[in-house]
User: Fold this.
Amino acid sequence: MRTWLTVALAVAALIATACSGAPVEWRDEPVVGEWPLGFRFTADELAEYLVDQHELVLAERVWCRANAGLLPDGGPGSIFGEDASERDQRRFFDPLGDAEMAWITDLATATAQLRELPLDPLPEFRIISHDDLRIVACHALLHEDQGANEGGFWLFERALGINHQDWTPSVLNALWAYSVGGWYSTETKAVTLVGDTPLASHQFYMITHELVHAMQDQYLEGGIEALREDVTSDHASAISWIIEGDASTVEAVIYSAGVLALLRTYDWGEDGGWLPERNGLSLGIAPLIGQEFFAPYISGADYVREQQNAGGWARVNALLADPPQSSEQILHPDKLESREPPIDAERLAELRRQIFEPREEPSATTMGEQYLANLIGLSTPALAAEAAAGWGGDELAVWSVVNGRRSTTAIWLIAFDNAKEHREGVSGLREWLIAWSNSSAVTDSSGRALAYNGAAGAIRIVNSAQTAWLIVSTDRRTADKITRDALLLTEEPGWWN
Ligand SMILES: [Zn+2]
Assistant:
């Protein structure tokens, strides 16, 4: 026990060195350190240890530093390759061979028949090895400007104390590079596979998945990207449920149709086994992000399957062409039917501005009913779906600088459909904060606000007529000021305890 603690501390010290940018020449010296008891370890061993500790991003940093000599010269770019220099493209990405293309063409025909959508032309295919993809991501990971993603919504979750990771584009790149098996690019219209040839048989399903994305992209006027232009976070996730749910459903259909057995002539490569393993990506992700991240592939597939059972692929095509505008419309079929829009975020923004108007404009979006349920579910899963069911609309506004001072401050203003739903929603939020804070959240003298002061920041819930205010700030005085103003300027809902 004692030895283990020492080891953990030694790793912490080493990580501190690795992250401070001190020159550690790991490539020249394969053994990167020594435990106090004399055990020597390599960068790979250290990275593996960090993955076990769920420190995926730190593990990638260690791995990148050890491989710094191999970094691309194209500068920081997306792993998806669109903005990589042409030289890097040639160096890292290879076209797929004839043997692979032969059965991929057959698979595309089968997929198009099963999905009842044409696929013409067949997208171009290319391949990159898993380690090369990680190398592409390394450049940004090692050279990123820390905190470049100011105003991103991870700030809100970090202030809530539920997510310690900085979700900069470089960090997301690194996580994707670690876990992704392939992708379809709406920009280049090409499918990229991650791995080596001969392909392993598990890649078969993923290729089906990407072929479906190519079909969707060809089917939709303006392509998949046109759907995602200028939408809120909630709307974007509703779209993802359809796009990813469709592709994931077809994977399952292809699987049960036994198509793989028809392609016996291909000499499959070793199943590297890394894909299921790396789905432990969720390990490096805060639970809330993990839910958001995987829901389109899991719950989205369930949803699309139900729709397909009820109305065939025509129904799924209709949903692609005109997707739900909110998670509320997915969770409540009657609201999809009536296309009940969320309560106008602009009205909520007006309400918020009456309370709090710092000089800077915030980043703002709508998070949606599913997100509210996910948040409440973190501490009180039994309450979550019911408490969130009356969600009528929301606006999350996040500032990284307030009145010239650096602090993360967020106001999440949630409106409910009616008084009963409002009561249930606020109770759900209240129970969540009480459980989340180990019962250290206290009701203030007004009886309308619940306050919690934690290490990551201050959280306040203010209950007002038809709405709930979740106020979060790394600066306690800011949280208190907004709370006081909200109490003064909003109506009493007439109940609380
Ligand atoms: Zn997909």
